[in-house]
Design brief:
Blueprint lengths: L2 E8 L8 E8 L5 H11 L3 E7 L5 E6 L4 E2 L3 H13 L9 E5 L2 E8 L2 E7 L4 E2 L4 H7 L5 E4 L3 E5 L3 H6 L4 H5 L5 E7 L7 E7 L4 E4 L6 H12 L3 E6 L5 E8 L2 E6 L1 E9 L1
Parallel strand pairs: 2-3, 4-6, 11-12, 13-15
Antiparallel strand pairs: 1-2, 1-18, 3-4, 4-5, 6-7, 7-8, 8-17, 9-10, 10-11, 12-13, 13-14, 15-16, 16-17
Length: 263
């Protein structure tokens, strides 16, 4: 047996930018340890595994190099992009994914891929002393949702300057820590970075699922339902966000950079 596997740069308009995701197209359900081993071999933030259902939708699971995760934006974007690119689905048809976070859909909007995701708003929470110590910057706000901490700091410069103590962040529990601030430039509304050492990803280049928390947070602060976020990692990437009730519509571009056969 062999399977097609690809690497797609998500939230990117050119190769070697944004966030790379593995995408593996399977003929049927695979054993979890095998998928985890493939994700470790791919060694990108997440690898997506797709199995087609009879109704033309797909079962979708995401694995980091060390764990399975409940929600992943960039690997979902990569999966939808790839299904259209290799003509598994026509470009006019929505991609529908059954996941641990419910049904997710994606569709083309010009050269963007739009994705309908659950909003994951945070609630303000008492911050552990280790959080500020690990980040090394003053915290203006700290809140949590079912997956992550979200921390607002003073400004974009503070976001970009952070060199966190990763072991301390890993000990906080949950998946990771989102650090954010208002943007210093008018073409975007906010900037962020995302650290998830507990999930095997020290810093994720561009995190779609983090924007499910960032979008409602900044929509409430800025009084708007349409926002643009920039994740200020070394690779960087732009995520468009629109609040739609208890959902967030995320948008971004993607570029396929690698195609192989997994033996």
């Amino acid at each position: 047996m062999s399977w097609d596997i690809y690497q797609v740069d998500s939230f990117a308009d050119r190769p070697f930018a944004g966030n790379p995701a593995g995408v593996c197209l399977l003929d049927g359900a695979a054993e979890e340890p095998w998928m985890q081993a493939v994700a470790e071999e791919m060694n990108v933030a997440e690898t997506a595994f797709l199995v087609r259902r009879d109704d033309r939708s797909f079962d979708l699971r995401w694995f980091t190099p060390t764990v399975e995760v409940d929600l992943c934006g960039h690997a979902t974007l990569a999966s939808a992009h790839l299904l259209w690119e290799v003509r598994v689905l026509p470009e006019t048809e929505k991609a529908r994914f059954h996941t641990r976070s419910g049904l997710l859909t994606a569709w083309r909007d010009g050269d963007l891929v739009r994705m309908d995701f659950p909003a994951e708003p945070v609630a303000e929470a008492e911050r552990p002393q280790a959080l500020a110590r690990a980040l090394g910057v003053p915290i203006a706000f700290a809140g949590k949702n079912r997956m992550d901490w979200l921390v607002e700091v003073a400004d974009e410069a503070a976001v970009r300057s952070i060199r966190p103590e990763l072991a301390a962040l890993a000990g906080l529990g949950g998946r990771g820590v989102i650090v954010t601030a208002a943007s210093a430039t008018p073409e975007r509304d906010f900037v962020s970075r995302f650290f998830a050492p507990a999930a095997g990803v020290d810093e994720d280049p561009v995190t779609g699922s983090a924007h499910c928390a960032l979008a409602p947070y900044w929509a409430r602060k800025l009084g708007t339902s349409t926002l643009v976020g920039f994740q200020a990692s070394a690779r960087g990437g732009t995520v468009s966000c629109e609040i739609a009730g208890d959902r967030v519509i995320l948008g971004g571009r993607a570029v396929t950079v690698l195609r192989a056969r997994l033996l």
